[in-house]
């Protein structure tokens, strides 16, 4: 049953947009929403940023689709973490990107 759910989510999200990819990668470990922009900047050596609207849209959509979980603490801190479904989607994207990378290695530019 989980495999069917994972495949439906992979089919829905693949290929991931850069914003969705960075959002999922940034929540591989529990992280507060306020820390995510800095995490993305760190992951991309400051080359990519997400607008807050894009970030929160992705967080909301991925929470709704059970790719990530959201915990709200007593002080209203929102903490996000990837789920098994999110990990499956991210692994599928990793494999897709590896294929594209291999194709580029074989192309003479």
Automatic annotation (TrEMBL):
> What sections of the sequence does the record tag as coiled-coil?
none
Pfam families of this UniProt entry? PadR
- Domain of life according to the entry: Bacteria
Q: Which Gene3D superfamilies does this one have? A: Winged helix-like DNA-binding domain superfamily/Winged helix DNA-binding domain
Q: Where is the Transcription regulator PadR N-terminal domain?
A: 29-91
Protein name (record):
PadR family transcriptional regulator
